[in-house]
Amino acid sequence: MWEYSDKVLDHFRHPRNVGAIQNPDGVGEVGSMACGDALKLAFKLDAQGRIADVKFQTFGCASAIASSSALTELIKGKTLEEAGRITNQDIADYLGGLPEQKMHCSVMGREALELAIAHYRTGKRAAKVLEGKVVCRCFGVTEEEILRVVRENRLTAVEQVTNYCKAGGGCGKCRPEIEALIERVRGEAAPAPAAAPAPLTALQKIKRIEEIMEKEIRPALKKDGGDIELLDVDGSRVLVALRGMCANCQVARFPLKDVVEARLREFVAPDLVVEEARS
Ligand code: FES
Q1: Which of 2, 50, 178, 241 is the most exposed place for a label (fewest CB within 10 A)?
Q2: Which of 139, 166, 181 to mutate to test the pocket of ligand 1 (most atoms within 8 A of CB)?
């Protein structure tokens, strides 16, 4: 028994937009009875190029029916450009999620829509064309399709790929190749090393030092009746003067390096050297 969201069950029991359209502008068909899922999607545009009517016919499980129904609701009123941007994840999200083993139903919906749009644009009705290298021969899934589901759904395991597009779910011979494709996408997704922050200008550095002294250093010194004043900044040299109690307190000189310099290095620039002005 699959765990379905209330919305999946609602669209399964009361599917929207079921049927056929007379003289449709675009028709897309995917799947086959032999594989257990099949979907035919047809739409008609209005004068503004928006999808005025869309209908589907499907042979499939509860999630195939719910995914197709959701897709029709998602694309109604949209232009073909807008509809073409809908991903299988959008369909699943609209339904409040699908069991992962059923995600291929949402992929089937997206594929049928792409074929229907291609039909409208080219005037040619085509079954799903296997373009490029076929990785999974059992289910006729290409490298391009696998890369796409991995990227769009951030998949990290072969089992997930099988759930999303069936590749790898037959004899299993293609599984090492699917693994390699997942690795390839993982490599693409590796975050670029963070760019080093632009160095501060002299004015920015002075302002930042003043700010940190005001917020992070001065309050602690004032508590003990002391104070600190910024006299000059020369490159990485920060010249300060201790005031009040601190001026005559030898103990106050120790925190100069440990606290003041450490704070300024942490928040302003790592090469700053704090020196006390000799009077
Ligand atoms: S070739 Fe992919 S499962 Fe058989």
Answers
A1: 2
A2: 139
Beta bridge partners of 257: none
Catalytic annotation on 249? no
Give pTM, 2 decimals. 0.59
Longest dimension (CA), the chain: 95
Identify whether the C-beta of residue 29 lies closer than 8 Å to the C-beta of residue 113: no
* DSSP secondary structure string for all residues of 163-203: HHH-TTSSS-TTHHHHHHHHHHHHHHHSPPPPPPPPPPPHH
User: Per-residue pLDDT tens for 33-85?
Assistant: 555 578 899 999 999 999 999 999 987 788 889 999 999 999 999 999 999 99
Two structure tokens written together for 221: 């010194």
Ligand 1: which residue has its CA nearest to atom 4? 171
Half-sphere exposure of 199 (CA within 13 A, CB side): 7
